[in-house]
Specification:
Elements lengths: L2 H9 L10 E3 L16 H10 L1 E6 L16 E6 L6 E8 L2 E8 L7 E4 L5 H8 L11 H10 L3 E6 L3 H6 L4 H10 L1 H26 L4 E5 L12 H7 L1 H13 L3 E5 L8 H6 L4 E3 L11 H8 L4 E6 L1 H6 L4 H13 L5 E5 L10 H18 L2
Parallel strand pairs: 1-2, 2-7, 7-8, 8-9, 9-10, 10-11, 11-12
Antiparallel strand pairs: 3-4, 4-5, 5-6
Helix pairs in contact: 2-14, 6-7, 7-9, 13-14
Amino acid sequence: MTRKERMLAAMRRRPVDRVPFAAYNLYPYAGSGHAEDPSYAPLLRKIEQSAGAFAKTGVTPSVHGVVSQRPGRLDRRIEGVGDGRVRHTILHTPRGDLVETVRIPENKPPRTSKPYIASDADVEAYLSLPYEPPEIDMTRADEFYVSAGDRAVMGIWFAEPLWTIAELFDFEDFCIRCTTDLPAIQRMEDWAFERCRENLRRIAAACRGLDCVLHTAGPELCTPPLMSPLLFAKLVTPYLRRLAEIVHEAGLLCGIHCHGRVREVFPELLKTGADLLEPIEPPDQGNITLAELMQQAEGRICLMGHIQDQEFYTAPPGRMTRRVEEIARVVNGRTGYIMTPTCTPFERPCSEIYARNYMEWLDAGDRIFNA
């Protein structure tokens, strides 16, 4: 089996000739965010030679949300310099403008200081937006698909209702509203679902015939401790189940990206009918072991991940090899699992410790799973 065939077989819970392992958003193919950084060159060469890759890409225009990106709907301006830079985004609606303000200091994560929605009036303004179907441009995805060939699996984002509306609020405010005014949140989700569904139909039609995964990340916003499993069952499961059906009708695979603690919501994740769950973080950042997950999955969903990204930055020599050995003992010839890190490498440049540990992990996967 090729690396791509092995990964796809695991996602479909079909027999594999060995446990697939893959880099996560680290690859030397078209669209690579790491290829121009010399510090990642040794890792990229190793991945091209012997490891698979799972690469998240998208279509143009971005349809991770449901707001039209066409001129006249959104205006952006950036003020200030250095750590004082601020980006203002003005969303024009039939009921008035909504403004988001984001601080974007140099070499630091951006931070939203003012969300689009802070009042009930803002909610009504957002819901007054007309739906404008996007025209799907697959150029970027096609370039990756061709250049990666049989060495990688491509994942393409799609929007689902929870993330679409949650990102409009201050997240603490959103969590409180889910508890104190759930009907209003569900009304917004119903509104967003109609648009997400049509967007996904267009994406699925454009991807028909490709061996790829359509995936979404909204469920990770609705996991403990911030949200309860009961809320997950109301705000995630019913919507995502219907979206997964659209993906399957197009002959494609459906994936869920969900960091954090999934023990309590795993039964609900299974109910969505998705084919893939990643990155299944190990304890202590997650709260369920790979052995428990595989037992509960029972061939109903493929599990991908369980190599904690943070360990690459700090682990002493030998630890990443032990992690692979531990996983090999759990998987023990079964399918429905792909070993990957839990996160994209974000460090620039790549530190010597990170590169050493990542290379050790790649070598261990190559040696242990290919024995």
